Amino acid sequence: MTxxxxxxxxxxxxxxxxxxxxxxxxxxNLLQRMAAxxxxxxxxxxxxxxxxxxxxxxxxxxxxxxxxRF
Length: 70
What we know:
By secondary structure, this protein is mostly helical. Helices cover 66% and strands 0% of the residues.
């Protein structure tokens, strides 16, 4: 069974078997913390509306940044 931000039991077990229990647990915990941080960043992301005129180059850069996916 997988949790929303965690690894499944099988994935944790495979890590423990292949890299050792201590390292496997550390890697799994790191991945879980990273996933939580990414979810927090996604949740708090805001769109920025420029309030002053911007140059064409800046406008192109901003439009390319809006296409970024994490």
